[in-house]
């Protein structure tokens, strides 16, 4: 079964990306749910390694782009090149034309580059000059942000944040994982070809078939209604508590509803089940909602984090 193959892939990735099980799992969920993932965390936490290792296991090309303040849209999308021998302009595709794209420090690029990224993520196409070009059918963006260094950054607009299926916050590994990372790195440097676990390989057809299986996972009407109640609670928080009402300036869009549905199904499928439980929805509520909630000034002044609000929502919105 494909679900077992993906479970084997998850195990392999966790052997290669030590101490970040949530990042590995959410990356696979984004792949299964046909969405993009935003990762926020300090440098050096194997974000590039995770995407690169995944790219080695699936049929598709990988490219990493370092976003900088002087980046131009053409550096991302490509541009028309004049061929003197033919007297014609020929489009030269840019690095965005890859199956897996790592957008490193995405918030360092100016608005025009963000607009090009927004079109690519939302429409799976780019526009260069007067022409529009489709992106590969398998297209996944993993973007990173550094939460510490904010000098010279451009905050992502709400419309672009909403296009990310998931936002994951990664932190430093524990002491045991740090020791395992040390030994893995030393072993790869000394004997790079020996004692490596066998990689799992997936074709694009396998991925598209897995996506269809995920969509066919059974979700009871009560679970669907639970998703709706969670989403509506972000728009009408005063019905639940004064604290929620004071913390939320604006609720989430219907994209959050669709994302909760797809991600809860993908999570259940990865666990080897053919049905979705309310616990699956609660598990995925954090990465699906945390970047979509617009916090009020009061919440920011009190230091209230989005995860605290989501935890309060889960506590107050009944699943039955």
UniProtKB/TrEMBL annotation:
The keyword Nucleotide-binding is assigned to this record: yes
Annotated ATPase AAA-3 domain residues: 36-166
Recorded GO MF terms: ATP binding; ATP hydrolysis activity
Every ChlI/MoxR AAA lid domain range: 248-311
Any Pfam family: AAA_lid_2
Domain of life: Bacteria
InterPro entries: ATPase_AAA-3 (IPR011703), CbbQ/NirQ/NorQ/GpvN (IPR050764), ChlI/MoxR_AAA_lid (IPR041628), P-loop_NTPase (IPR027417)
Keyword tags: ATP-binding, Nucleotide-binding
Keyword Ion transport on entry: no
PANTHER family tied to this protein: MAGNESIUM-CHELATASE SUBUNIT CHLD, MOXR FAMILY PROTEIN
UniProt family annotation: Belongs to the MoxR family.
Protein name: ATPase AAA
Organism: Photobacterium galatheae
């Amino acid at each position: 079964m494909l679900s077992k193959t993906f479970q084997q892939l998850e195990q392999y990735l966790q052997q290669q990306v030590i101490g970040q099980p949530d990042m590995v799992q959410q990356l696979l969920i984004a792949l299964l749910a046909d969405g993009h993932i935003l990762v926020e965390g300090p440098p050096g936490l194997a974000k590039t390694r995770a995407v690169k290792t995944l790219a080695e296991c699936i049929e598709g090309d990988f490219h990493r782009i370092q976003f900088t303040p002087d980046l131009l849209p053409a550096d991302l999308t490509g541009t028309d090149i004049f061929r003197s021998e033919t007297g014609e302009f020929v489009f030269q595709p840019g690095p965005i034309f890859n199956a897996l794209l790592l957008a490193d420090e995405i918030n360092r690029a100016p608005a025009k580059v963000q607009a090009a990224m927004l079109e690519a993520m939302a429409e799976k196409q780019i526009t260069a000059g007067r022409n529009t070009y489709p992106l590969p059918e398998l297209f996944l963006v993993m973007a990173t942000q550094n939460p510490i260094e904010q000098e010279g950054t451009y905050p992502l607009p709400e419309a672009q944040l909403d296009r990310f299926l998931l936002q994951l916050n990664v932190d430093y590994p524990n002491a045991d994982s740090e020791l395992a990372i040390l030994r893995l790195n030393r072993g790869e440097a000394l004997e790079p070809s020996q004692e490596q676990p066998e990689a799992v390989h997936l074709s694009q057809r396998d991925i598209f078939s897995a996506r269809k299986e995920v969509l066919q996972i059974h979700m009871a009407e009560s679970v669907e209604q639970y998703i709706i109640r969670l989403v509506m609670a972000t728009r009408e928080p005063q019905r639940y508590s004064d604290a929620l009402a004071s913390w939320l300036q604006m609720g989430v869009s219907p994209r959050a509803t669709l994302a909760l549905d797809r991600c809860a199904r993908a999570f259940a499928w990865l666990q080897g089940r053919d049905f979705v439980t309310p616990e699956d929805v609660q598990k995925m509520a954090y990465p699906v909602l945390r970047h979509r909630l617009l916090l009020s000034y009061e919440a920011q002044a009190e230091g209230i984090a989005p995860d605290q609000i989501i935890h309060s929502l889960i506590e107050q919105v009944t699943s039955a």
